[in-house]
Design brief:
Layout: H1 7-14, E1 17-18, H2 26-41, E2 45-48, H3 54-64, E3 70-73, E4 92-99, H4 111-119, E5 122-127, H5 133-136, E6 143-150, E7 155-164, H6 179-190, H7 194-212, E8 219-220, E9 228-232, H8 239-242, E10 252-256, H9 257-260, E11 270-275, H10 283-291
Parallel strand pairs: 2-3, 2-4, 4-5, 5-6
Antiparallel strand pairs: 1-7, 6-7, 8-9, 9-11, 10-11
């Protein structure tokens, strides 16, 4: 396959090579990755972890249903406790995990990656924010899907890329997106200041978490996180109603988890605070005052 501009930076960060044509969104890239796994293994069963964004998971399932591929979508997992290792098996083509998940938690395969490879299953990692690659390094996966949306990079590109082991590469294929989009993302990822910006966003999230941890009635949900703090407001609280009461702060986006998961009323008390840029020194205190 002819290398696209920006491939070098992406190859280094993902630990693989481009194995499929660039797509116009992450869903298209995920579908290609799953199809590649099915072709390579000769199997037709796939598990989508509860770490995937619900819109992404639903779109992947809808796209693959006509291809007679059996999709198992796991329930939302805000605590990151789903047992992926216990779900691997000889008939599984791919196990798909997103990191960070919609709750901001960094996710990995852990033992499941080793078990997948023992069973011949392809572990697929979906990198929700490509800026994460500058901090975490290549994920432990045989296929890596990278999207083109990152507030920290200042890019929002209609793009979905698939990297991984050369043995999983396609023979040929036309890309539905221009090489310029790939080049733009590659250039942003190759920026020497990216790692510093990603660390600064992570540090800001940790400052927010440390301050809100001291607010009575609030509980932190996410453990090891990337630039997002997930808060449990209390059993009788509704995060949707709380958002209008929060101050508008530069570099911080507040999203109720129930917006992402409208069919899961038990997630109504969850509020997601995502760091999208530099924050003011007093931002953690102002959030604490509003949430107290």
């Amino acid at each position: 396959m002819r290398s696209a501009p920006g491939d070098d930076a992406l190859a280094v960060l993902t630990g693989g090579v481009s194995v499929a044509a660039a797509q116009s969104d992450v869903v298209g890239a995920c579908v290609l990755a799953v199809r590649r796994a099915c072709d390579a293994t000769g199997r037709r069963r796939v598990i989508l972890s509860g770490s995937l964004h619900p819109v992404t998971a639903a779109a992947i399932e809808a796209a693959l249903a006509p291809l007679a591929i059996e999709i198992e979508c796991l329930a939302p997992d805000p605590l990151g406790i789903e047992d992926l290792a216990g779900r691997t098996g000889w008939d599984l083509a791919a196990l798909v995990v997103q990191s960070p998940d919609p709750f901001g938690t960094l996710r990995g395969f852990g033992l499941a990656a080793s078990l997948c490879r023992e069973d011949g299953t392809v572990p697929v990692a979906v990198i929700a924010d490509p800026a994460l690659l500058a901090l975490g390094g290549p994920p432990d996966a045989d296929l890596v899907v990278v999207g083109g949306h990152s507030p920290l990079l200042g890019v929002s590109l209609p793009l979905g890329l698939v990297y991984g082991r050369a043995a999983l590469a396609e023979g040929s294929g036309e890309t539905p997106v221009s090489g310029a989009a790939v080049e733009t993302l590659g250039a942003a990822l190759a920026n020497d200041g990216l790692a510093a910006r990603a660390r600064a966003a992570n540090d800001a999230a940790e400052r927010i978490a440390a301050r809100l941890r001291r607010v009575r009635g609030l509980s932190l949900v996410s453990g090891q996180r990337f630039a997002t703090v997930a808060l449990y407001l209390g059993e009788d609280k509704d995060a949707e109603a709380m958002v209008p009461c929060l101050p508008r702060l530069s570099g911080i986006e507040a999203v109720p988890a129930a917006r992402l998961y409208p069919g899961w009323p038990e997630l109504r008390p969850l509020l997601l605070l995502s760091v999208t840029g530099a924050i003011d020194d007093d931002a953690p205190d102002r959030l604490a005052a509003a949430l107290a």
